[in-house]
Amino acid sequence: MPDTNEEVFDATPDTTATDDAYTNAQDLQAQADQAVAGGDYATAADLRGQAEDAATQAGTTDMLDGSDAADLQTAATDQQTAAAAQQQEATDAASGNYAAATDDANNAAYYTANSDFSGGGATDTGVASTEALDESWANWDQQTADENAQSAASYAEAGLPDDAAIYADAADTAQANSDAYGAAGEFDTAGAAPVAEDTAVAEEPAVAEAPVEEAAPSADETSSAE
Known about the structure:
Elements: H1 16-37, H2 41-58, H3 69-94, H4 98-119, H5 127-157, H6 161-184, H7 205-208
């Protein structure tokens, strides 16, 4: 007969701590998901890391979803790199260095896409790609403007003012187009109309019929405008 005075122990394990950890992991994962949806990969990485710690305490990871903390941290790093590239793009575009601005915007688009791939979000709205396209056109028109200006100087030096005027006007048109595209492509202004509808873009018809000479024309050469 058992001793009725013997203390009886409850062999049922206490699951309170485990349940709390599970709930905590769920909450943290939900917050991480919200941060990803908002494009804040740095915050998401921190929250997901906490969720993973809580999941370890809970003894299961079935409440976790999406990118893990390591991938989210990679996404955050790429996101910062993209932001720096966009800021540099704005600086280069503002200074008229459209070739560099094009490279900057392409880098921003690349790292933004990488960031979304690692983080599982959708922050790439095409802005950087649009900026890169605008800056590419700005660079093209800038080169055209420079070539036309050189031709205008050559014709003027050779005593052919009419030809010089044609190329000078074409240089002004190309430069105006270049600056319009460059401004439209500056960071945070992508998508703006680069030029008015009645303004020629990347075309100077008057010069299309008068190719740029490699050497300065001779003084006795007749003007193509005559």
